[in-house]
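So, can you check this one?
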Amino acid sequence: MSLSSPGPQPQIKQWSLEDVHHWLMTEVKVDEAIAERFTEEEVLGEYLVDFQKKDILDLKIKHGPAVKITSHLERLKQGSQHESQIPAYVERWTKEQVNQWLRQHVNIYKNHADRLQDEDVSGDCLVYFTKQDLLDLDVKSGPAVKILAALVKLNNMPEPTLQPPDHANTDQTLCQPATSVQHEAQLTQASQPKEPEHAPKEAQLPKEEVTQRQEPNPTKQAAKRKQADAIKVQPNVTVEIQDILSDLSSENFKEFHFHLREHSKSKGRGIPLSKLRDKDTIDTATLLTDHYGSEEALEVAVDILQRINQNDHVHQLKRKLGQMALRCQSKEVLKREDNQGDKLKNLLTCGGNSLNAYERFVVVVNKSSPEQIGYLQFLSILKLFCVLDFDPDSNSPGGVCQSYRDTRAANLHFPSQYQGQIHTVMKDLNLYKQTSWVFCNGRNDLDSGSNPEFDYKNWLRKSCKDIESLVSFICAPDVLPHGRCLIIFLLLSPVLSEKDPVFDTYRAFLKNTEEENIITICESRTYGVWSELIQDKCECDINQRSVYELNLSEVNGTVMAFGPINQSSRRLLPSPASSHVVLKQRDEDLMTALDILCLNQCENIYDENSQEFQAFRIKVEEEFYRGGKVKWWNFYFCDKDIERPFVKRDKYKDVIKLIRSEFRHSTSTCVQLNLFHHPGCGGTTLAMHVMWDLRQEFRCAVLKDNVMQKEDVAIQVQKLMKLESEKPTPVLLLVDDSKEAENLHDLVNCIHNAEECVNGPGMDDAPNCQVIIINCVRSHNPKDQYKRSPAPCQYITTSLNQKEQNDFEKKLQELKETHEKPENFYSFMIMKRNFDKKYVDDLAHNTLDDFDFSTEKARLFAFLALLNTYVDESEISVSLSEDFFGMKMFQWKEDSVMDRMKPYSNLLIIDAVEEWGYKGIRILHQWIASACLEELERNYHLKISEIALEMLHCDLFFRDGVVKHRFVLLIQQMLIERRRIEGREREQFSHFIEEVHKQQGRQTVQDIFVKASSRFETSASIPQALARYLYINEQDFPEALKWAEKAKNIKENPFTLDTVGQVYKKYLKSNILREKQETSQNPEDLDSNIKLADNAIKAFKRAQELAKAQDEYEEKGADDDSEDYPRRSYNVNGYVGVLEVAFLLFQILGRLQFFEESDPAKKKYLLSFLQSGFPITSVYKEDNDINNRHIEIIKEHNQLLVNLKTEVKTTFEHINRYYTYFKGNDSEFDSKNRSTIYSLFKRYVDLFCTASEEVRKERDSNPNLNMKIGIEEHRRFLEQNQADTFTGILQHLDRRPEEIEDNTKCYAFLQNKQQFINKRQRTKETINYILSNIVLYIVNPKSKYLKTYNDLSRLLLKTLQDVGLGYPFPDPYYLALLLLWPSPTQENTEIKTYVNAIRKSSRKSLFSVYPKRSTVAHLYLGKGDGLQRLVSKPQLDKSFKKIRRHLLAQLWRSGDIFKDKAIISRLHRISGTIEQGEVFANQGALKVPVRPALLGTIRSGLSTEKVSFYLGFAINGLLAYDIQYEN
């Protein structure tokens, strides 16, 4: 075809894809990438003729080329040629030169010029622009007209000079050496050779040079880049100084010249006046850097700017150069390598000697070959955040993933799992704790075939978006902060074209992070095509960030050299018989909750003769003795220098002795030792010191994740105990920062007797089979708590004996030899002074001299003192402190806040707050914080309430942000967290509120809560706490109700509703107590009390409805044992509240004259009214005003009262389900609930379930009533024995056979009579009848009252047809699982339907308690057939008669009972899989969903694995016990 000749439109319609591509490349002259885009979108000629500019923009082509293509297309369709009225040289302008022309000659706004540059408007595009094209780029009409007019005027003007702006391309110029600036005409005219000083600033460059720059040679440009990269990298000080100088006024600029001439602080002399005369800002900046060099030039400029009071410019200059230095840091070190080995080292370490320069690494890897696997060990020593793997066989034998997992732990994921809230994804996938291995293009080792490998076209369509989302997630600042993560493209096979998922992934990273954060490692044969692709498609030269001349073996060896200085050194653990084992990195990876202390901890990390090590030691010691947390290094330093031992507290030997005694003599293999200590007296330090010295005898670890599920922790402790050894080794576990000894009850239960469970009964006194937990408990009365503790314990206080004091004095003298002014190590000095309060008070008094609360530093210090006194482990973040001071981030060092805080900074320290990811500032010691508050009140009359109100007044603290969110939580904790006081359960309110109440009373307390409530508008805890304060402390029920309702309106949850109910209930109790003391009755009291009761019941019922799964209560005040702040979860508190109020109502009604319980006749009326709705108007009563008014009031509340008995019955059933179906809670609060419920049920039976003598007489005298009364008596019998419900029958699995036999006979009688009130009753009793037969078979299989398995199955199938799949209770579906679960040779496709039905039904009927509780199985799948295959827990327990009851309970809690031969012989193990954290049982082609009975048995990280397990039947579905992984 001929594209050059004009022709009619039909000629275009015949063009193929190649023709369109050829036309774009040769005639329109666009980049090949744009032409390729048309080809990818299959734009044939017949489609091209209809294209408008918008259609081209829709192809993701930028505006400049789009206008050019559109213009060419229109002229082609019209058959005309382009006749430009604009000079030809314009078409040679690059987009940068267009930008320069617009800004320097047309003088339009920078944002308009930049917009055109962003849209690739080069000269050959600009000549086609119309006014509308400019308007489409948001250029206003005025500038648009001016631009077009200026283009036309160029015909009558010489070619304009295009000077690059002073800030031009800062990202590229900022790393050029300042000394080279003078040689570049792009930066200044002053440096041109042979140019006189008075030459005009706009002197034009030779036209040949301009032309050469306009048409750069790509080869020469690449050479220039390499040459520039070889120069030592420095921030471009010249450009930035010139920028600052240009902002000065002419007067200030003259002052700058004057001081520059006279400057004498620098090492060199000032610049002579002759050189400064007539110099503009560019010339001056150049002279500065030429005369002084870059670094000193900056110091001189800063000094002079400070002299002339240009502080803002000082800050601006420091900030810009600080940012430039950070961005250049990684580039700077690259210039020092002599070879590719040095280059690799510098890329990975930023020029250092360790891999700690980056917090995490991200690796992108493609397909590997088996021979490469042996050279990838270096991956195991990198701190990998995740690996993006494009090899679907990577987890198969010989794959990279499987090789890595041989030595390290990794969770296997897919890109789609990285979607959702950042914190949720990080928690679910165990990010940061374990490596995430992401399969980005299929995974072939899974049998299901659900994740196949795609060709590029299908990958682009189905997976590319997930990869882009994954990359965006990884690069988010909240995940991996910029500059602290290195992305490595490890190309193990060639990438041959841009149509490769790996290349698309590279581009995705470029969109989300800086190019400097990405490196490439590959072989030379792979590098050529790869680098060209990136150069052509991404316009990036990756040469300086690529290693390609080393083979994989050399790469591996180079990286492995970054390990410990003694490469053969491994972390060691003690083992029996004085042997040692190696702690493999993979095993340590899997124990994410434990910080493991090894035998050779801290060894072979540093060259201990180096200055680096000595400086590190000085720093670590100083931080600790000032008040920082102790580290293992502190003990190591003292061990290495035996003449300077670590100071031992007097109780050190006692704790050692206690541990060894418990280890040798305890009959229990899990022992909890409590170490009670005053805050700040060295309790944690003592415990860690003990562990350090016992690390030869025990495997020691610190629990570093206190929020992890206790079951998971127990499994990890067991793993540590048995690691690499046939015989278990005792474990010493430290739990720090515990506030109560009882907090570890669940953890002890989970790991108690674990080894005995594995090895069988009778292992109680086996040696070396113990877990000893040191529980550090902060206490305000450690000695008293020690005396009352039933568990083995020890204590330390804020009192030193003489030997301890002497040891501290000796240590002080030692510190004086190695540290400057150790007298300022105040935490150390407090202990040395034996916690002398006068010393601390004097320290506070002297430091706070002339304290002025109106200053920022004084206010911030007061805030810290308040928080550190009343909230343990509290701090204010450094960044928030900087915001408080209004500081600009230019100094790039953490102690700038400390400078602002002088003279108080000597009492402050900066710590890392690991869980929140920032650094925080706090007072060195809680005693100092408390003494400062006392000093402020004593000498400055500043009360804690005033400080709190001032803190609540500061707007800055209550804006959005992570650190501010943490700060807000600390304030709320101060206001609402209650501490335990010896002799009582807890303080009624937080310690801070108690103190304010003592000092100033109710009004101030209420003022603080009101102000806090206005600040925390979305938090319900503050008004909720105020409501508690008012109704408990002040008995002001109306005001308490107002705040309780406000809390409920803010956040309607179980806790706020419970508070509302408690206020009403307490109000009602107060009224009853008052009325008992009054001699006369007021009928209106009945009305008020019934209304209070009604509101209380509504609140409690609503609370129970809302008691579903909650991630966690938003305030720590909820982690509390009081009735207003239930612990862990809401449980059945709402039900208990309903019952309590209902029986208060029964009590009120029973005191009425016509309902008196003491009179049998009147009680009969009461029961008739409550049970059968007997009309209140028919009740016999004396005719008087009080009775008549009582009757009227009862009529008004008739519906509530007549339904009350049914309400109570239903509530008892709900509670019974809870305690039957779910794992029990042994907490004191739960035990209190059980006791309350038991006593209330006894009252219920006495009131409603006892047949009167009149009823028995009536039955005997009237045969026609005999059947009806008999049926009622049978049902009453079942109710009285708690066998009228499904849960009650299940409880008979552990009772005498005679009881369930009597119940079965009752149900058989009712089935025979078929006298049902309605269909619902018939269904319920039929279901109960089937279950009673199953239970009876299990406890007495020879009973003559049994129905056969086939009869029961037929009756169940008929019932299932009647109820369908939407029955409101899970009972029929539970029976379906029991009776219809297929045998190994059968396949029942309906079983999955019943599993889904039972799950759905249980969620509806049990949602108030189910989500927060784990269900238990009462029956298990055995090896028999029919009913014989059902095995109950009591049957299994019979195999362990010799084991004590509490130890047997431990066996069940841990799940280790399923390892016993007696269990294995009776239960049937089935196969399944784990996918996305969900367990499935394999039944033929079906995958039946199953829940893990113990959450800790599922590895975290959502890895997909094959498993097997035992099957248990729970009320919410199937449970998997003893889950075993195939690998």
Observations:
- The mean pLDDT is 81.
- The chain is about 50% helix and 10% strand.
